[in-house]
Amino acid sequence: MPVYKYDVTMTCSGCSGAVTRVLSKLDGVKSFDVSLETQKVTVDSDKLSEQEILEKIQKTGKAAKVSA
Amino acid sequence: MPVYKYDVTMTCSGCSGAVTRVLSKLDGVKSFDVSLETQKVTVDSDKLSEQEILEKIQKTGKAAKVSA
């Protein structure tokens, strides 16, 4: 079960809440964590690719990239 | 040329920046304004419907509705 990690620029709880809302509506996501403090998003999915999830996160308008 | 108006919950400049980024990438938008202060977004488009633009704004994860 892959767990993908992303760096996402989020500056307030409205920002992290928006990313949370998008991921909670996304089919194929088993679980996820959004951390405003560390600016990290982790997503556990065996149905979606790392890139597919990145694109969904980017649709929020936040700067996002796969964590190094 | 229709100008559509939306109420969008935005709590910081990261929030309004995210909405701005999404609208600037959206084909068919002639001009738009995003106001963090008034929580309003106005969009000038002759190619997209009020509902199509609303759905794009909602993809940011922000609570959004057509202004009454």
UniProtKB/TrEMBL annotation, chains A, B:
State the Pfam families in the record.
Answer: HMA
The reply on keyword NAD is no
Which BP terms in the Gene Ontology apply to this protein?
A: copper ion transport
GO terms for MF: copper chaperone activity; metal ion binding
Where is each HMA domain found?
A: 1-65
Q: Which UniProt key words apply to this protein?
A: Chaperone, Copper, Copper transport, Ion transport, Metal-binding, Transport
Answer whether the UniProt record assigns the keyword Transport to this protein.
yes
* Any one Gene Ontology cellular component term annotated for this protein: cytosol
State the family it belongs to. Belongs to the ATX1 family.
The record ties this protein, via PANTHER family, to: COPPER TRANSPORT PROTEIN ATOX1 (PTHR46365)
Q: What is this protein called?
A: Cytosolic copper metallochaperone
Gene source species = Linnemannia gamsii
